[in-house]
UniProtKB/TrEMBL annotation, chains A, B:
Belongs to the zinc-containing alcohol dehydrogenase family. Residues 180-291 form the Alcohol dehydrogenase-like C-terminal domain. Residues 25-137 form the Alcohol dehydrogenase-like N-terminal domain. It holds the Pfam family ADH_zinc_N. GO terms for molecular function: oxidoreductase activity; zinc ion binding. Its cofactor is Zn(2+). The keyword Oxidoreductase applies. This is IMP dehydrogenase. Keywords: Metal-binding, Oxidoreductase, Zinc. SUPFAM superfamilies: GroES-like, NAD(P)-binding Rossmann-fold domains. It comes from Microlunatus endophyticus.
Amino acid sequence: MRATYLFGAGDIRVMDAPDPMIVEPTDAIVRVTRACICGSDLHPYHSQPAGTEGKTIGHELIGVVEEIGAEVVTVRPGDFVISPFVFSDGTCPFCREGLQTSCEHGGFWNSARLGTGGAQAEAARIPLADGTLVKVPGTVDESLYAGLLTLSDVYGTGWHAALRAGVTTGDTVAVIGDGAVGLLAVLSAKQLGAEQIILMGRHRVRTDLGCEFGATDVVAERGEEGIARVMDLTGGQGVPRVLEAVGHLPAYEQAVGIVRPGGVIARVGVPQYDQAELGWPVFGKNATITGGPAPVRAYIEQLLPAVLDGTVKPGRVFDRELGLEDIPAGYAAMNDRTALKVMIRP
Amino acid sequence: MRATYLFGAGDIRVMDAPDPMIVEPTDAIVRVTRACICGSDLHPYHSQPAGTEGKTIGHELIGVVEEIGAEVVTVRPGDFVISPFVFSDGTCPFCREGLQTSCEHGGFWNSARLGTGGAQAEAARIPLADGTLVKVPGTVDESLYAGLLTLSDVYGTGWHAALRAGVTTGDTVAVIGDGAVGLLAVLSAKQLGAEQIILMGRHRVRTDLGCEFGATDVVAERGEEGIARVMDLTGGQGVPRVLEAVGHLPAYEQAVGIVRPGGVIARVGVPQYDQAELGWPVFGKNATITGGPAPVRAYIEQLLPAVLDGTVKPGRVFDRELGLEDIPAGYAAMNDRTALKVMIRP
């Protein structure tokens, strides 16, 4: 098959690769219908040292089950499935609590331990298929692909931010970041009943989509100026629920600056820092810092019906579709921000 | 009157001072029955630069109202009162939400803005008396003084840690720190129904009291060794509710090391650091960091009855009582850990 490999910063290639095979009786092989490029793929795309061996990449897919291991019971060949960005057994204490990202036996894509490749490929081996894959009922029209694909990561991640922040009816919410996750955090906050949704971002095309998703205010300013704008918009008190969907330090600092005393900062952007402010500016306000990698597996069944019936359209975050061979152009477009999120058609 | 002043690190003196007077019509003057020394008083005691002018100190007291301003209606001269370690108006949005530490008009003791002195004195001016003071009903026997005095700070602070961490029936909890706040966090966790309470501390006399308050396990080890012990005690999963009652960086790092995926770290020790770990070790586990200065005013009415009827005895954290003139000896004893908490009798 053909699959994507990252050889170093900026050096992404589509190459011949061995077809994935059933290794464990709990595996499934899924033929990829659509994959995509994630904002978090850009981190190694920026920083991976040049090496002799390429690394597989990609962690979002929808597709059709091609083959299953002897112990797999919840999906069968021919089923159309969504695969979350984390594998999980569905039975350990953490999975039962809905924290599949901490599954005792699961793990991430492109894992040496699990022996998995990446999702930006023609097919993929899915370990722990029963705990991981979610079957989409009925016939799946191509027009639904984009929406379903967001359930593998970005929609569930935006939803996680809003849930962890405790967004509820009538709330004031700020979303930091106008990437796909930030925009879907806006959508999620709106679905959970938020009344005022302040979107902090400065890419007009993206924030316009954010407004369609439910943002009531857009703040393009950053730093002290951005904080001052948000304080103005909240009667000087700050924002009770801040969803941080970037992962860079200035975004966190922005969150600390605007959070209301007693409020919550929910982080879902993978932090690109180790140390950050946790002294009086956080403590003095009794602010809460929460969030982490989203257990999207826990949310798919809940979010799926409204995607299938078109009530919500999270797939609008995809603004470009490319063939697998064009992946290098897709990375370049996301990197220079001419594309918001790129869908890949193997 | 006589009052306590800190002139620099280790230089604490009891001196003549002007009697406090009503300045605002919302003030009350309280004659101090008992004050005490707080672990947080040791921070300036360690670090305050030597200066020509002394600074007042102390923020915990019980006493008798001597005089009230024209607008004060909830307390009268002769009332026995508890004063929390923060002044608050009781009417602003934050006070109404039970976050009096963020009161829009309140503030801390020894405040230039509020024009207040410290509580380690014969008398004190209490601004915003209606929002701040809590009247103790009935005749107050001297045997109750210690318990009532803990309601001005350390008991409410331990309670805040347990509440913010979400401690509930059957929970496993770890308390980091065997100072007065840590021990009362143990007591609070026990009251809230925790089943396993792991106390991390290495002062035997203190951890023994912690066991009487409800600790089921004591871990004296620190760092990696301490983390390993706690993991052993929790079946390798870590602790879902960690109450951090120290404020130094190693205590926070301990908390990060032992918190269970999806768990909560509630900090009530004033952080003596600005930056701390907020990268993958926190994010990857979906851990929550919460806490801050405790709005003890919100908890006094709830905690008072069991103190008055002797059901709980938080006053046991006081292991020494000294006259006001002996304050320097009290600071020295707390500093070299020969005393757990010193009560002051003006």
